[in-house]
Amino acid sequence: MTISTDKVIISCALTGAVTTKQHCPGIPYTPVEIAEEAKRAYDAGAVIVHIHARTDEGAPTWSKDTFARIQEETRARCPVLINWSTGGAGPMTERVSHLALRPQIAALNMGSMNYAKWSDAKKEFAFKFVFQNAFEDIIAFAKAMREHGAKPEMECFDTGHLESHTVLESLGLLEKPYHFSFIMGVLGGIKATARHLAFQASNVPAGSRWKVIGISREQWQLAMAALTLGGDVRVGLEDNFYLPDGEMAKSNGELVAAAADLVKLSGRSVASVDEAKALLWPRGGHN
């Protein structure tokens, strides 16, 4: 388990790949909309923004040109650290070219799983699919991230996913401190409880950074648990639309502001961009 630190790195997942403006009007689509949301998140206290690219109509896209426009628009507005998504359906080769744009961080899914949301009221799945992340793909992504200088954010949806990092470690594809994310609340993965989060945190290699990504309204309870355990937090419209009082957020900035308030209540403090860089790259060398 990592040693608790006073500084908390707040990340914000701006848009995701599936939800639409019909689900939540604040979901951004275009590069300008995404960049404006990045600025709102940064102004509220986020130092990392996790980004999926969209077409102007809202469909997911892996166009390198679209990622480049998002990067340009975001960097024109604020110095927030950029974290590209690499996860999703389709061949791995279609989800790697944008790493050549040299983001500071890139998300790396660490295992396969059933990925679903079940409606008990309707007795049916809202969605369900097999989320495939074979070891050969995990290794190939890690090699591409190393080539382009991006720090892997190792996304773990279940307990066994955490141990997959040992393969990358053995191959020399990771640089300490390691960076983990625990995604909790997806049916097929680990449950969204403080007890399950504590178990995950207890297995993190010493000196690593880790954060919790709570899906849906469990996000806030998990964020509080992570702050107590010494971890970082991620919020954002990709994961959850609702503020702690149940009101739908109008922007990612509102969600980040609520997370920053929790950080202060915990007795810890929100890291700046420079502080986050020092925590994630203590020897320098970041993009």
Brief rundown of the structure:
The chain has 287 residues and is α/β, with parallel strands linked by helices. It has 9 helices and 12 strands.
Write up this protein.
The protein has 287 residues and is α/β, with parallel strands linked by helices. It is 32% helix and 20% strand. The protein contains nine helices and twelve strands. Helix 1 packs parallel to helix 8.
Give the helices and strands, then pairings.
Layout: E1 7-8, E2 10-13, H1 31-44, E3 48-51, H2 64-75, E4 81-84, E5 105-109, E6 113-119, E7 124-131, H3 135-147, E8 151-156, H4 159-163, H5 165-170, E9 179-184, H6 194-202, E10 209-214, H7 219-229, E11 232-235, H8 252-265, E12 269-270, H9 273-280
Parallel strand pairs: 1-12, 2-3, 2-11, 3-4, 4-5, 5-8, 8-9, 9-10, 10-11
Antiparallel strand pairs: 6-7
Describe the structure using short key phrases:
287 residues; alpha/beta; TIM Barrel; 8-stranded parallel barrel; two-stranded parallel ribbon; 9 helices
